[in-house]
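Lab notebook: predicted structure, single chain.

Context: the supervisor wants predicted structures on file for every construct in the current expression panel, including those that have not yet been purified. This is the next one on the list. No modifications to the sequence; it matches the entry in the shared construct table.
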Amino acid sequence: MNRRETQALASLKRLGADRFLTFLRVVEPEAHCGAVRFFLEEPETGKTPEQVFVTGDDFGYSLHVRATADGEFRIAFGCDAGALCGDGGEWEMRFDQNGHAAIVSAVFWIS
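Prediction complete. Output recorded below exactly as produced.
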């Protein structure tokens, strides 16, 4: 596995697959981000989130998660489809005990 894949899988484990998918569903209407929309379509292919992150090359989805407080995370997520071709963002998210998520702040990028 390469560095992107290793980091993405470690971050997915830190956040949890259920919270990650909740995050995507919450940010999707406001993100205008292809990476979010395309990742949400992946379960239709029968792949798990872990399988989606492992592509075998340097391009693909990236994920970096850092806990900032109890129930709060800074989530950097995006997709590099090729050299200088991709989009994503960085979100501050708050999760409650019931599994609900709220956006605290968001910044987007495109290349």
